[in-house]
Records
---
Amino acid sequence: VLAQAQSVTGLVTDEKGQALPGATVVVKGSTTGATTDAEGRYRVQAAPDATLLVTFIGYTPREVPVSGQEALNVQLAPDAKQLNEVVVTALGIKREQKALGYATQTVSGESLTNARPNNFAQALSGKVAGLNLISPGSGPVNSTRISLRGDNSLNPNGNNALIVLDGVPMNSGLNGSGVSSAYGAGSGNDVPIDFGNGIADINPDDIASITVLKGASATALYGSRAANGALIITTKSGSRQNKGLGVTVNSNFSVNTVLRWPDYQYEYGQGTGRSFNAAGEPYYSYGASADGANTGGTSSAFGPKFNGQLYYQYDPATQTQSTERLPWVPYKDNIKGFYRTGSTLTNSVALEGGNETSSIRGSVTHSKNEWIMPNTGYDRLTAAVSAQHTIANKLKLATKVNFTNRWSDNLPATGYNNQSLAYFMIFQNPNVPLDAYRTIWKTGQEQIDQVHPFSTFIDNPYLIAHEMTNAVDTRTTVGNLSATYQFTPTLDLLVRSGLAATQEEREQRRPYSTANFQRGYYKQQTISQYESNTDFLLTYHQPKAGRFDLRTSVGGNVMYRHFRGMDAEVENLVIPGVYKLTNGASNPLVNSVITNRQINSLYALASVSFDDKIFVDLTGRNDWSSTLPRQNNSFFYPSISSSFILNELLPLPASISLAKLRLSAAQVGNDTDPYRTRKYYGRSDFPGSGSVPTTLHNTNFKPEITTSYEAGAEYLMLQGRLGADVTVYQNVTRNQILEVPLDPTTGYSRAVLNAGKVRNRGVEVVLHGRPVDAENFKWKSTVTWARNRNRVMSLAEGLVDQQVIGTGGTATLLATVGGTTGDIWGYGFDRAPDGQILYTKDGLPVQPANIKYIGRAFADWKGGFLNEFQVRNFRFSILFDGQYGGIIYSQTHHKMTEQGKLEHTLRGREEGYIIGDGVVPNADGSYSPNTKQVIPAAYYAEYYRRANIEANSFDASFLKLRETRIDYTIPASLLARTKALRGATIGLYGRDLAMWTKFPMFDPETAALNGSTILPGVEMGQLPSTRTMGVNVTLQF
Amino acid sequence: CTDKLEELNVDPNRIERISPGTLLNPIVYELGSFNTSRADGFTFDIMQVALPFPSVSGGVHRYVVSESAGNSTWTTYYRWLANIREMRLAAQAAQDPNYEAIALTLNAWTYANLTDAFGDVPMTEAARAEEGILYPTFDSQQQIYTQLLQDLETANGLFNRSRTMVYGSDLLYANDVASWQRFCNSLRLRLLLRVSKRPEMNAPAELARIINDPTRYPVFTQNSESAILKITGVAPNVSPWGRAIDFTNARAAGEFFIDNLNAWSDPRLAKWNTLARNKTNTTTIGYRGIPSAYGGSDAQFQYVPSNFNIALATAPMVAVLLPYAEVEFIKAECAQRGWTTADARTHYERGVRASIEQWGAVVPATYFQQPAASYDGTLQRILLQKYYALFFVDYQAWFEYRRTGLPVLPRGQDLQNGGRMPVRFKYPLVVQTTNATNYRSAVQQMGGDDVNTKVWWEK
C-alpha cells in the first residue's frame, strides 16, 4: 500500500548553521525533488516513510528519513575527504574533484601572496605540474608567458594558456612598444620595453583561488583560446558567514637586491690588446698623449693590467684628459654600484559583509614599486567590488568588477641596443668609474650633448635612467554581471555578460646625442582594447533517479574583441628636451592598427554519474569565427571525460581512501588572426603610398585542430595523509595556420597556410603527504614534477623542411620534422671525426658553412618541492623549484667575452697568447694539433663570436630557493582583549633567495623580448633578476 | 550571420586597391637606400674603396665572400620587383603610359643588377604567387637582358611629356616625365655596355644608334638630371644608417682608392674621406689608406688611417641610382672603342667634371693638366675615373671590373679564393629549400653555384 504523500518543508544549513541555497533535496527512489531557495528552504512531497537525500556540492550527502514529520531541517557537514574538494571549472561551473575526468590543480590565493612577486603569475612557479613560465627578465613588470603541457603551436605567440578572471577571458598577449627584435644594435631603432600585459594588473590580494585546467578536455567549453589550457581565477567574494562588517587590512613591504652577478674581471683595463708603446708594452692613454695614441675609444678590456701604474686618463671634473698621469686601478663597483635596493610597498583594505540574501566585498589596494634600476618602478591601484543579491525567490544577480590603474614615469628598456642599460653594462670598462658618467650633460650643453667620454656607442647610464624614459598609464576594467533565474527546481538559466577593457597610454622619450637618435625622438602610443563575452547557459538537472544523476546544459556565447592602437612619433626634435609631437622637425608619423574579431558559439554539455562511482562528461561546441574564410568558418569539436572511483567499484584494501582513474579525450578547434583572407597593401610612411604585402593571403585555410588524450590516476591512502596524482597526456595540433616561408622570387616571403603538426606528450606527477599531523605540529609536503616531450610531426608538406619559429640575434629557433619547436640552431664549431675543434692555419676556429642544431630551449623536466609546517601559531613554508636540461644562448656572454670583460677571458693574458685546443687539418686528410699562438683578444673574439651559438650557449638547469615564509598568528585569546581585532598575522618572507645554476650570466630564467613575442632559449640583453625579502602584516577587524 | 562575420573580417585600415603611383615612392626609396647600403657593405670592400680595420683575417677585401653574401640582395630586390610589377599592372589598368614606362624602367634597373649579381634568376614566372606559381623557373641571363632592353625601348616610346603624372609627387624627379625618360635611356646605355661582349646582342651598334639620336633617345646631359635620390632626413626619407657611427666604426680607407685621388690632388677627397693622423693622433698627415687584403699585424701601420667622412651617411645625403657622369664615361668608352665617332677625351673630361661637381666640389683649373688625370687615350684611364664616378652606386664598380678587369687593382698579400676576384653571389639557401628543382636546373645551366662561376655576359 502506498502511503499518502505529504508536504515536507525545511531548512538546509551548513555545519555552522548558515543557510545553503541551491542544495538538492530528492525523495530517494523517485524523481521527485527540489532545490533550496536563497534562504536555504525547500518544499517536497514525500510519503511519511520515505527518505530524503540531501546533497550539496562539497558536502557529504545525507539521507534523512521523513518519519512522518512535516518540518525537517537538515544540516550538512563539509566533505572532509580531499577528493570532494570543489573545483571551479570552465564557465565557472563548480564541480566535485572526484567527478572530474581530467587533471586540474588548484592554487589558493594565500599561496600567491605568501612571498609575493610583482607579477602574480610568478607565484605559480613550482606549484603546478606542467605549468611553464617564461619571462624575459625585463624589469619590474616582467611580463610572463604562461603555457601548459608544452608548446602546441609553431607560432611562438600561440601557446599561451587562457586566463579567465571571474569568468571573463583576459588578453594575456603583449602589445609591443613598436620594436620587434630584442637584438637591435645598429638598426637605428628603439628597443623593446616591457610595458606589461593584462595579467600583470591582476591584484593577488583579491584572488581567492586559481584553478589550472591543464588540458584541452577541461577547457573545450571556452572554445579555441583554451586549447592550451586555462587558468580560472576566482576573486574573493563577500562571505555570508560574517554577519555584519568584516575589515581586513594588509600591509606588505619588501626589498629587492640583485640575485646574482656574472663574474666580471677587474684585473685588466680598457684596450684592444693590440696597442703597444715604444717599449713594446701595452699602455693606456685617454686621448693621444706623450705615452702614445688614444687607446680610450675601445669597448674592449684587453688593455694593460692594473698595477697602479700611471696613465693619462679621463678626468670627470674637466671632462677631458687628465693633466697629470693617474693611477691605473679598477673600479669594481662600476656596474653593481649603479643599482639600488628596490622596494615594493603594498597596502590593501578589504571590506566585506553579507546577510541571508546579499553579500558584498570591496577592496582597494595600492602598490608602489621602486625597482633596482634608478628612476624605474611603478604604482598600481586596484579597486575591486564583488556583490550578489537574491532579488526575488528565483532570481539572483551577481557582479564583479576589478579596476586597475597602473602607471609609471619610467620602465626600463630591454634587449641588446644602445638605449638599454644591459648594453651599458656590457660596454662598461673596468677602469671607468661610474663617476665618469655622474654628470649627464657636457658643461653648457644641457639636453644637447651627453657625457659619454669613451665611445659614442655607449649612452650614459644616468641619461638612460633619467632622460630616456618610457612612461605608461594603463587603466584596465574587468567586470561581469550575471543573472540566474531558477524556473523550476530542475531548470535554471544563467545569463552573463563580461567585459575586459584596457586603455593604455605610453610615451617614449629619447634625448639629443644618443647613438640612435642624434637629434632626439619622441613617441606616443595609445592602445584601447576590449573584449566582451555574452553567454547564456540553460541547465537542466534531473534529480537523482535511482543510481543515475544527469545534468545537461546548453549554452551560447558571443565573443567580440576590438583592438585599436595608434602611435605617433617624431624623429628629430626642434627644441632639445621638449617632448611634444608639435616639437618635431617634421610632421609626426602616425600608425594606426585596428582589429575586430568575433566568435559566435553554441555548446552543449552533459554530466552523467552512476552511483557516485562513475562519472562521464560529454561536451560539444560549434564555433563560427570571423577570422576564417567564409566556407570554413564553422567548426565543431567534442570532448569526453570520465572518472572511475575504483575503491568503490572494486574491493580494495581499506587503507586506500581513494583510487580514481581518469580518462579523457578532447578536440579543440582554433581560428587565427583577423584579416588573413584578403590581400591588403602594407602601409608606408610616405604619404599616399603603400607596398605589396610580403605575406600571401589565403582564401581557403581551415581551422586548426588540437586533439588530446589524457589518462590519470589519483590515489589517496591513510585518510588522505599520503596522496599521488599522476597524469599522462598527448596533444596533437594539426592544420596549424602558419606563415610559411616562400622563396622571395614568388613575390612574397611568406604564405598563410594550414601546415604543420606538433605533438606534445608528457607526464605530470603531484605527490603530497602530511608526515606529521598532530594538533600542535603539522607538516605538509608537496612535490610537483612534470616532463614534456615536444615533437614536430610535419611541416608544410613539400614546401619547406624547416620553419623558423623566431630569431634572437643569430640564434634561430627552427622547427624541423622530428625536432621540436624549441630547437635552437646556429653556427657551431667544425670538428674533426674525433670531436676536436678544427682550427685554421691562423690558429682560430674554422667558421662552418652551415648552421646546425645546438640544443633545445625546453627543459627535460621541471619540478617543485614545497614544505609547510605549522607549530602552534607559527607557520613556516619553504619552496624549491627548478628545471633540468634545456639550453640558453647568451648574447651578453658573447659580447662580454669578445670584449674581455669576464673572468674566464683572463686565461692567456699573462702569456700574451692562447693556443686554441683543437686540431688543424692537413693536406692528406689527417689532423695535427693546433700549435698556433694567437693574441687573447683575437682568440676570444673569434671563439666566442656572436654567430657561434654553440660556444655561447649554456645548460639552463637551475634550482632556486623560490619561496620561504614564516608567519605568526596572534592567538585569538590575546586578540579578544582588543575587542576590535579578530585576527592578526605577521609574516616574514623571502623570494628567490638563492639560485644554483651553471648559467654564467644573471639568471637562466630569461627569454628574448621580441616586441610582443617572448622567445624562449635566448638571452638578449638581460637585466639583473632580483632577490626579494619582505614583511607582511594582516589585520582583521 | 556569416555575412556579418565576413564583413567584420575586412581591415578598416589597410588599402585593398592601389593607384599607379601608390607604390612608386617606397620602391624608389627602399631600393635606393638598400643599394647605398650595399655599396657600403660589399662594393667598397671588394673594390678597395675601404676595408674593415683592424681586420685580422678574412673579409670581402680578401675575397672571402660568404655564401649568404647575396641573401639581402635576393630578398630585397624580389620584394620590390613584386611592387614594380604591381605598379606596372596598375598603370596599365589606369591606362597611364608614364607610370607604366617608369615601372618598366625601374624593373630593368633592378633586374639588371640582380642578374649581374647572381646570373640566371627567375623573371618571367617571378612575383606571381597569386596565380599559384610557387616555384618560378629561372630565366637565362641572355633572355633577361633581351627582355629588359626591349622593355626599355617600349618604355621610351610610352613616355608622354605632355601628360602630367597625377598620382602623388615622386621622390626622385618630382613628376618630371622628361627626367624619367632620360633615366630610362641612360639606363639602356648601361645595360647595352654591360652585354657588349656578347656578339648576339649587337650592343655596339645599338649604343651608337641611341647615342647618336638624342632627340628620340634623350639621356642625361647634366648633373641635375642624374638619377640621384635626395635623402632629406625628414622621416620617412631617412639615412639607411640607423646609427651613423656604424659607417665609420672600425674602418679605414683603401690605399688604392686614396692614392689615386692624392695623385690627382682631387677635391673629392675632402668630401669623401677624413685626414689620416700620426700614430699619436696629434697631427694630420694628409690622406692615407690601408692596403686591402693586407697580411701581418695591425701594428705595421704606424698611423691612424683616413676613414670615410661620416657626412656621406648622415642625412641630408644622397643615394645615387645612375649619375650623369656614368653616361659620359659610357660615351667615352664607345668613342674610345670606335663604336661612335665622338671625341673620347671630351666625354672623359665631362665625366670627371660631372663626378667632381656632383659631390659638391669644384674642378681645379689645372686638373686635366696633370699627366695622371688627363685623358691618355686608354680604356684604363676612362675606367679608372669611371670607378670614382661610380662611388656609392650599388654594385656598379664591381660589375664594371668583372666586365673589363679595370681599374687594375693592386693585389694584397693575403688574398683568399686563390687570388681570384669573386664574380657572383651564391644563390641564397632559401632558394635551395623552397624551389629546389628549379634551383638545380639553373645551377646546371650556369655551370655551378659558386662565387667563381662567370655569368653569361662575362664569358
---
Amino acid sequence: MLISNMEIIPDTRIQEHLGVVQGNSVRAKHVGRDIMASLKNIFGGELKGYTELLQESRDEAVERMTMQAQQLGANAVLNVRFSTSSIAQGAAEILAYGTAVILE
Amino acid sequence: MFELIIFLVLLTLGYGFGRYAEKRHYRSLIEREQKLSSLPAVASRFPPMRGAYRQVLVNGNVVISVDYFKRFLAVLRNLFGGRVTAYESLMDRARREAILRMKEQAEGMGARYVFNLKLETASISKGRRDTVGSVEVLAYGTALIPEAAAG
C-alpha cells in the first residue's frame, strides 16, 4: 500500500478513483502526564509525553485509513492530509484522509 | 504578600530556565539544520519526472508549552496590542524542530528529497484557564527514496 501526500506518481497512471478514505483517532491524556505537563508549564519546553501520544494516535489514524482503502480494493492512497482538533478539554482528535486509488 | 512571592518566584524560574532552554535549543537547531541541509524539503506538489523514486509519507511533530514568564509577557501585550515576540520565537522553534524531525526520519530511510511539505498547527488545550497552554506543530511530506538505495 502506497501512502503519499502527492497527487502524482511519476511514470504511473491512475486506473481508478475509489473516493475519499479516512481514519481518525481520539486520545485523552492521562493524569501522570498532565502533572508533568503542568510543571513544564512553568519552565517551558517540549511536552514529550504529548508528542508521543499524538504521534501514536496519528499512526493509528493512518492505519485505519489504510484499512479502509484495503477494503475498497485500492493499492494506494494519494493526497493524504492530516488535521488535528481539540474536541474536549484534554482530548485531541486526529484525522487522516486521502484519496484511494488503484494504480496500474 | 505570600502570593506575590510565589508569583515572583515562578516568574524568575520561567525566565531563567526558559532563556537557557531557548538558547540551547537554537544552538542545536542550527547545528542539525546544517547537517541535514543536503536533504531539501520542498513545498512543491510536483515530483521530479526523471529518475525512479519510491514514495513514503514522513512526518515529525512536537508539542511545546509556554513558560511562565512568556505567558506573563503575552498577557501584558494583550493590554497594549502589538507583536508578541515571546510567542513568535516559541512557534519558530517548534516549527523548525518539527521539520527537522521529519527530515531525520526521511534521512533514516535514505531519502533524497522531501516533497509537498505541509505544516499544521493546533492548540490541543485551548481556552481553559490554569491549564497547560500547549501547541502542537506537525510537519509532513513525501520522502522520495531512489529505487537503487531502496534495494
---
Amino acid sequence: MKAQNVTREIMTGNEAVATGVKLARVKFISAYPITPQTAIVEKLAEMVSNNKINARFIEVESEHSAMASTMTSEMTGIRSFTASSSHGVLYMHEMLHWVAGSRLPVLMAVVNRAIGPPWNIWADQTDSITQRDTGWMQVYCESNQEAMDSILLGYKVAENKNVMLPIMSMQDAFTLSHTSEPVIIRDESDAYDYIGDLNLPFSIDLKNPLGYGSLMPPDGPFMELKKDMRDSMYRAIEVVKEETKKFNEKFNADFPGLIENFMMEDADYALITMGSMSSTGKYTVRKLREKGMKVGLIRILFYRPFPAEEILKSIKGLKGLGVLDRSITFGQRGAVYEDVVTSLYNKTDIPIKNYVIGLGGRDIRVKDYEKMYEGLMEGEDSMEWINVGGK
Amino acid sequence: MPTSIPKQELMMSGHAACAGCGAVLAMRYVLKALGEKTVVSVPASCWAVIPGNYPAEVLKVPMVYTPFAATGASISGIREGLDIEGKEDYNVVGFAGDGGTADIGLQALSAAMERGHNVFYIMYDNEAYMNTGIQRSGSTPFGAWTTTTPIGKDRTFKKEKKKVVADIMMAQGVPYVATASVAFPEDLIRKVKNAKEIKGPKFIQILSPCPPGWYHNSEDTIKVSRLAVETRVFPLYEYMNGKFNLYKTNKFVPVEEYLKIQGRFAHLKEDEIKEIQNFVNERWEILLKKEGN
C-alpha cells in the first residue's frame, strides 16, 4: 500500500462539515442561522472571507429563502450548499419538495435538534425524519469523520446521473456538532479528483431556454416523474455501495456505506440504531459480550433510500430484534421501526420491538441499552419508552 | 407615429391568459425592454399558468417556476449562480403578482432588495389573488369586492387601504423603484431600461387590470389602466439615484370615472366614493411633497 500523507485535526462536527464543503469545492452557500448548526456557516463565512474556499456566501432572512436560493443557484449549474436544524428544516419543508422534484443534487447538512414546543435545542431526529417523504436522500453520521466524509460522498452520489436527487447529511446536536474529536482531513487534490465539477445536464441556458417546473395536468407526465424519482431513489442503493467502495479505496477510508454491522456474525439479539447514539450501543454490546450474551448492533447510515435488503441479510439467525427511534410519530409506532417492519414483512418470524429513546437530548445511557437488550429476550414486539418518567 | 417600443417579441402568441389580461402586456413590455439575455422567475400566480400546460412555454427566455413565497430568494440564487459563472450581463427578473409580493413574498422580497443583488423584481399588480379566483390581498384597494370581501347584507367590501409595495421599497432605500402602467408602454419600457442602468436591486410595480376580477370589459384594459393614472388612483412615479419624479396628470379626473366602469366597485355609495377621492387626494399631496423635498 502506498504511503499517504495523513493530516489529522481535532475538530467539532460542525467544523468537519465545513471542511467537507471546502473539499467538495462548493461554489455557493446560502444559509440562515439556527442553533446548533450556526457554527457550520460561520466557519464557511470565515473561509470565504479569507479566500480559503472559492465560493460565495449569502446569509438570507429565512430557511425557506435559504433553500430557495440554494435551489436556483444549483439550477445555474453551480454546486450549492446549505445547512440547518430543527425548526429551520421544517420551515423549508415546501422547498425540500421543490428541490427534489426539480432533480437538483443539492446537499444540506442538518444538525438534528428537537422540535418545540417546549423549546429544546438538544439532539432529536424528529426534524429530519419528518422530511423522509420529500425525495431527499438521508445519511445519519456517528462521528465527525463521517460528518466530513458524507459531504464528499453525498455530492458524489447525488450528482450521479442515475440518481439526481438531493441529499441531507445528519449529525446529532452537540454530541457531534459541538464535540471535538480527531478527524482525518482528506487530501484536497484527491478530493477534487474524486468529486470533479458539477455537470448539470439541464442548467439554465439562454441558448436553450426551458421552463423549470411548469404546470403539468393529470395526463401529463406528472405521475411518471414521481415514479422516476422513486426509481432513482432505489437505484441510489447501488450507487451508494459503489461510491462508498471507490471512496474508501481513494482515501484509504472505512466509511461503512448503507449500514454498519457491529458484532452481528453470531448474534442472537440485535438493536437497530441511527446516529451518535450508536457509540454507546457498541460499548454496551462489548460489555454484554464479555458476560457471554450474544448481542450485536445494526447501524443505519442511509435512512433514504432505505437499506431493506441489507437489513434482511443482517438479521439472519437472530432470535430478537429491537428498533430505536430518536424521533416521535404520534398515533403509530416509530418511523424507523415501521420501515424496518415493512422491509422484513413475510420474510422473518422474529419478534421486533420498538424503543423510543433520547427525545429532546434525553441521555441514552449504557443501562438503557442493557435494558433494551434484556427486553429483546422476552420475545415481545411491544413499543417501549426508555429513560422516561424517572424509570 | 413611430413608437420607441422595441419590435423584438420575446413572448410568443398562444398563451393561456384571459382576454384583456394586463399581466400579459406587462410581461411582454418588460421583456421587450430587457432583451433576450434574461432569466425570469415566477412564483405561484397567474403567470405560472399563463404559459400553458407542459411542455408548452410562451417565453423565449428561461423561466423558473417556484413556490409562492420564494421569488426574492429565487432571483437571489439565480443571480449569484450566474455571476459565479461570469454571466454578469444576464438580466435576472422576478415576476410576481400582488399576493406573491405584498403578502406571502414580502419577506423574501425585502431581504433580497436589502442584500443588494443585481436583480429586477416586477410586481404585476392586479389587486387580488386572481389565479385562485379573486380573493383580497394586501394590495386590494379600499372599496373593492372580492370573493373574500363579499358585499352581502353587511356590505363587507374591503375596508382597508391598499398596501403600496413600491412605497415600502422606497422607504427601504431600494436604489431603483418605479410604478408603471400598461396604458403607458413607452413610459414602462423607459423605466425598465433606466432600471437596467443601475447595478443593484430594482423594483417596478405595474398596475395590471384583470377583466374577470375587476368586472370590466376585456377591451377596456387600457382604458381602465389609463383612468387609474389620470384619476391619480395609481400615480406613476420613478425613484432613481435618490431623486423622486412624479408624473403629473394634466387635468382633474374624478375617481368615479375609474370606479364606475368596474363591477368590483359597483356597490359603492356616494359617501364611500367620496372617501376614496379623499384618500387619493391625500396621497397625491404626499407624493407632491416627496417630489418637492
---
Amino acid sequence: MVKDMVLGSEAVALGVKLARPKVISAYPITPQTHIIERLSEMVDNGELDASFIRVESELSAISAAMGASQAGVRAFTATSSHGLALMHEVLHWIVGARLPVVLVNANRAIGSPWNIWTDQTDSMSQRDLGWLQVYCETAQEALDTVLQAFYVAEKVLLPIMVMIDGFILSHTLEEVVIPTQEQADEFLPPYEPEYFLDINNPLSFGNAAKGDVFYNLRKDIQRSMEASFGVINEAHNRFDDIFGRRYDLIDTYFIDDAEIVFVIAGALTGTVRVAVDKLRNMGVKAGLLKIRYFRPFPSDLVRSYLTDKKHVVVLNRSLSFGSAGQITQEIKNALYFEKDKPFIYDYVLSLGGKEVFVEDIVKLALNIDSLETSKILWRE
Amino acid sequence: MIEIRFHGRGGQGAVIASKILAYALFLDGYHTQAFPTYGAERRGAPVAAYVRVDNSFINVRSPVINPDYVIVMSGKLADTVDVSSGIKENGLILINSELDVDHYTFEERCRVVCFDVNRIALKYGLGTKIMPIINVPILGVFAKLTGLVSIDALKKATPKFVPVKAERNIEALEEAYNLA
C-alpha cells in the first residue's frame, strides 16, 4: 500500500486497473475524460493488459462493453451527463441480459442550457433500470468502490453504476491509499462466468420472450436486487479484512442523539460533515446520514436511524419535476409505515454546480422551525 | 486550516501550481486538497485554484472565500479581478509584478508583496517574453515569504506535475526562493 495524492478521476482509473478488466470502451466527455485518459495510458504503456476500444459515441461505448461482457470478460466504461443519456437504451439491455458491467459516471448536469458542472440529474434519470447505484464522497471511496463494484456485480449478475461528482471530486487532488495488486487480487477473484458467448458451446442470448417468461425474468431482477444486500455486505466485510477500510450501505455522522439529520449523497457530504461539526460546537444537535447505495435502496437501515428523529432535511441535487427530490421520495417511502415519523423536508440544495458553502447548511439547521414539509424547498 | 487561493488566466499554470503546492505540503506531512474552479478550460479566461492545508483530512469542498494567502499569477489580473476578496485580516497577497507594491491598493487589511517572477522565468527559458511561465518559481517566493512549505518538498513535487523542463523549473524555483 502506498499513500499518494491523486485526482478523484485518477483514483477511479487506479481502481479499475487493480480490477484487471479485459475490455475498456469509452468516449471522452467532461468531467469524465481524465478517467479514460489515464486508463488508455495504462493500456498503452503495458501497465494494464486490456483492450481499449475507442468508439465514436457513448452508445457505441456501452454497446462494446456489453458485447465484451457477453463474451465472458470483465468490462468497464465511464461517462457523464449527455453521454449517460445517450447510453440509455443499452443500459436497459445490459440489465435484462444480466451482465455485470461496471460504469463510472462523473455526475454532471444535463442541458439545456449547457452546463458542465455537477448535479445528480444524469444518474437519477437512470435509477429505474436495474443497475445498482453507488455515490462516492472521496477519491479513496471512489477507488475502493470500483473494486467492490466488480465483486458485487459479478456475484449478483447485475451491472453497477458508480458515481463521482464532476469537478468537486473528479478534479480534486487529494490523498488516497493505493492498494497493492496482491491485495486487489486477493479481494477480487478472476471473472469466470457460467454463461457466455462461446462458439464451442452455442447458446441463445436475449431471444424473444413472451409475457410469462418475460414477467418471471423481471421478477428475478428484483429478487437479485433484494439479494444483493447480502452480497454487498459480504463485499464490505471482505474489503475491511483485506484493506482495513470499513464501508456500509450508508454512512452516519453524529446521528445517535441528533435532532436534525441531513441526508445527502455524493461528494458534498464532506461539506455537510463540516457543517455538522460547526452546529455541534454551537450546541445544535445536528447529524448526517449519507446514502452510499441508492439502488438497491437500504430502506431498513435508513428506517432504523431516522424513525425517532425530529427533523430530517433531505439535500437533493436532482428532482423529479412535478414530484419531489428523488432521495426525498426514498426517505418518505422508507418511513411510511412508522407510527411516529420525523418532519421530512424536501430541499433542492444544488443543481448545475451551484456552489454550496458550510454556512448554507448551518443556516438551514438554525432556521429549521421556518421550513415547511408540504412543498419542495428552494434556496433563495 | 490554512487556505490559499490562486488567480490566473487559462494557460498560465495556476491549476498546476496549486497541485504542486498541495503535493509538496503532502510531502511535508500535511493533509491537503487542491482543486480548480473551471469554466470550460480555455486560454486567457480568468481561473481560480484553491489549496487547503490541515492536520486532518479535509472534508469541505466549497471554493475558498476567506483565504489566508492569495497568489496572483500576473499583476494585470489584480487590476481587473477582485483578488483580495474575503482575505483574512493580516493575510498575504503575492503578486507577480515588476511594479512597486504601492501600485496595488486593497480595502482589506492585508500584506501585499510584489515580486518580478517573469524575469526569473525568462532567465531559465520558461515560456516566452509575451507569456512567461512562472507557476513553479512563484512557489519559491511563496515558500520563502510564508515558511509554510519546504523548498525541498517543492523541488520533489515539481517534476510530478511539470514533466517538461522540470530541471529548469527547479533551478528557477531555487533562485526565486533565494532572492525572495
